[in-house]
Amino acid sequence: MDTHGERRVAVIIEDDADIRHLLETVLTQAGFEVIATGNGLDGVQAVRAYDPMVTTLDVSMPGIDGFEAAKRIRAFSNTYLVMLTARDEEIDTLQGLEAGADDYLTKPFRPRELRARVEAMMRRPRQVLAVDGSGPVAPVAAPAPAPVQAPVAAAPAATIAEPQYTPAPTAQAVAVQAEPAEAAAAPATTKSYEREDGWLDHNGLYVNSEMRLAEKDGRSIDLTRSEFDLLNALMESQRRVRSKADLALLLRGESYVTAHFVSEADKRAIEVHMANLRRKLADSITTPRWIETVRGVGYRLAASDND
């Protein structure tokens, strides 16, 4: 159990018995009750039945692969999803993140790194899904550019035959905190970067870290946890450049001033998240309105329309 009394359950979806046993050991040591499955279909059923906090998912499996399994899981669950792949290629990372993964690790991985990423990920807010599984919902907001609905509890878990247990660990990120929100909707007009009722505004893009909402031109933007945290970090930092290493550590919940190692794979994951974020914002790389790439360094907000 965690400090809030919530049951700490992890589901493992892995067809390799040796890796499956390793994951069980790591997650058990981290205080989880572990349900281990050997294929995608059984894994999706286990997630539906046990409503785990964390799910590890192998990419290459017989039957439905990890990408398809991730899409099916995301249709009804807000579990923290960590994908494991033996292929360290950008296309695999991109597919995994687009399928709904919160993080990914390349095999062979270090057990300590998996545990650290899971523990960091657990410190991030979990989205609430509508009871029909249609997607995240947010607390009721005051009238504004886009209406927001009240939070709804996650769909009740189905039941399947109880698989064999063993506890396990976890890993990933911390959201950048903003001032408490007092109203639920973005202000109609505010000066760039100015906070009002918990919202940050830049060139018609609104972000509220308390409610974990992003809106553009009066419409809600559907972002993953990592995409939202990166966008919120850039909005908070204004025109200050954030390096890829800095942003990778942000997602892992670690401080930039410490000596934590950031791999090339971590930096590439940031590039993938940023590419997805740009696509969802319909932002141009050459003439950006929101996200500007600082070549060889990282990212920052583009100049204000008022400048």
Name some characteristics of this structure.
single chain; 307 residues; alpha/beta; Rossmann fold; Arc Repressor Mutant, subunit A; 2 domains; 5-stranded parallel beta sheet; 4-stranded antiparallel beta sheet; 14 strands; elongated
What does this structure look like?
With 307 residues, the chain is an alpha/beta fold. The chain has 2 domains: 119 residues, Response regulator (Rossmann fold, 3-Layer(aba) Sandwich), CATH 3.40.50; 129 residues, Winged helix-like DNA-binding domain superfamily/Winged helix DNA-binding domain (Arc Repressor Mutant, subunit A). 30% of the residues lie in helices and 17% in strands. The chain is built from 8 helices and 14 strands. Helix 3 links the parallel strand 3 and strand 4. The longest helix is centred in the last third of the chain and has 18 residues. 41% of the residues are buried.
